[in-house]
Amino acid sequence: GYWDDSDYNQPNQPVVGVSWNDAVAYARWLGKRLPTEAEWEYAARGGLSGKKYPWGDSISTSQANYGRNVGKPVPVGSYPANGYGLYDMAGNVWEWCSDWYDENYYSNSPVNNPQGPSTGEQRVLRGGSGLFNSFTLRVAYRDVDLPSLTTGDCGFRCVSGF
Predict the structure, then answer these.
(1) Alpha-carbon span 154 to 128, nearest angstrom
(2) Is the N or the C terminus of the chain less surrounded, counting Cβ atoms within 10 Å?
(3) Residue pair 115/53 in contact by the 8 Å Cβ criterion
(4) Coil, helix or strand for 40?
(5) pLDDT for 102-112, tens place per residue?
(6) 43-77 per-position pLDDT tens digit
């Protein structure tokens, strides 16, 4: 539905309108995978500890696409990178993670490199989007949806290695 829409098909915009299932298939085709939720949060923090956002505790529209300030996804890299050189870890589009969602998983998970629950009904989305308020852009914020969801503000990023 977004292929012929100029709000979503411009060069360097994130790919949107893909389900979790589609994102996993594409990542595997590339020899990559979706990040676990823990990997995503670690990467989003960019080396900072205890901060709300990938760059610190305050937020402005010069740091991320959120709150309908643009109204569509912007090209990747339109805002400054975090401490690890990663762009758009907050705002622009939600990002699918490999994990099933369990509200209480982290209260009983391994401390190091938790892989997420082995079953569930919904998958984890992280990072917020340009359509949501700044609260959802916090690096600790977790959202969920059905793996079949396809919207104009859900995308993904791949990580190398299995």
Answers:
(1) 9
(2) C
(3) no
(4) helix
(5) 999 988 888 88
(6) 999 999 999 999 999 999 999 999 999 999 999 99
How far from the centroid of its chain's Cα atoms is residue 150's Cα? Answer: 14
The rounded distance, in Å, linking the Cα atoms of 81 and 128 is 16
Which residues make beta-bridge pairs with 144? 124
- What pTM was computed for the model? 0.94
Looking at 31-162, list the stretches that DSSP marks H as alpha helix, in order from N- to C-terminal side. 37-45, 105-108
Instruction: For residue 119, give both structure tokens.
Output: 């079953």
DSSP class of residue 78? Answer: S
pLDDT at res. 77:
95
63: left (phi over 0), alpha (psi -120 to 50) or beta: alpha
Contacts of 125 (CB under 8 A, 6+ apart): 94, 95, 96, 97, 142, 143, 144, 145, 154
The confidence score (pLDDT) of residue 3 equals: 87
Could you tell me the CA-to-CA distances from 34 to 12, 68, 78, 105 in Å, in that order? 19, 26, 23, 19
Q: Which amino acid is at 96?
A: W
